[in-house]
Design a protein that fits this description.
mainly beta; seven-stranded mixed β-sheet; 0% helix; elongated
Length: 265
């Protein structure tokens, strides 16, 4: 006698692993220091009908490069048997330079997510959840998937780690060069609107961008002439910004002082 249709005492678990298509890069990341300073007095007294120049030193200083590795890959999820299974959280983990565990979230496809759970159809279907990791040691190491079946669970599925190799990895430079620019505004006390056209500015000495080594130059801010109705107290603010290549990062230096426009009839 065969008895069928019984409910399983324990639901099958999904199978998770790091997908074979794992992209590894060897990165060299450069840090930059940005300086903008001036010896202008505060307040700077400007006669309304006489242009006054203030020269500021602008400098970008390139630091030494730091080597690291980056990973781009996916956590691969598969169901078992004929059932559609679900999980609630998918992550990837690897070891940092200091031996700490770096954990990043994997982004599962929107069409696989229902009410906060990630659905995994029956085989042979696979769900791939991409992830990006950076700042890892510039050497071979392990990376593993962390998949949590139950919502709020702190115990991931048992998954064997995958070894990645940096031997033949592509080399990339992050922040090897910078593009620089400056902006300024002169705002009268009690107002939030900058005075149009004041001050004008020009730069000299800095090479054209991109700049790939330590460099310095001058930025000259010219205050005035002003109209006879524009005397009063102002706040001057300027910034000098360096945008790093191959990176969303930037460095900014700020300069600010008070300006007194005087002598109006």
């Amino acid at each position: 006698v065969t008895v069928t249709g019984c409910q399983l005492s324990e639901l099958p678990k999904p199978v998770a692993k790091i997908a074979p298509a794992l992209n590894v890069t060897n990165d060299v990341t450069y840090a930059w220091d940005v300086v903008l300073n001036s010896n202008a007095s505060s307040p700077l007294v400007v006669k309304y009908n006489t242009p006054t120049d203030v020269t500021a030193t602008a400098r970008v200083v390139k630091g030494s490069g730091q080597r690291s590795a980056s990973l781009r890959g996916s956590v691969q999820l598969m169901s078992q048997g004929v059932s559609t299974l679900t999980v609630h959280r998918v992550q990837a983990a690897a070891l940092t330079r200091t031996g700490q565990l770096l954990i990043v979230n994997a982004s599962c496809p929107a069409n696989s997510t229902v009410n906060g759970a990630i659905s995994i159809p029956p085989p042979p279907a696979k769900v791939l959840c991409p992830f990006i990791m950076s700042g890892l040691p510039p050497m071979d190491g392990p990376v593993m998937a962390l998949v949590y079946v139950e919502e709020g669970s702190q115990t991931p599925l048992p998954v064997s780690p995958t070894r990645y190799s940096t031997a033949d990895a592509t080399r990339t430079s992050i922040g090897n060069c910078v593009s620089v620019g400056s902006s300024s505004a002169l705002t009268k006390e009690g107002s939030v609107v900058a005075l149009a056209g004041q001050p004008s500015s020009s730069s000299r000495g800095l090479p054209g961008t991109p700049i790939c080594r330590t460099a310095s130059g001058n930025v000259t801010f010219t205050f005035g002439p002003f109209e006879a109705s524009q005397c009063g107290s102002y706040a001057f603010n300027a910034d000098f910004t360096a945008d790093l290549t191959n990176s969303p990062a930037w460095e900014t230096a700020e300069l600010g002082f008070k300006v007194q426009v005087a002598g109006c009839p």
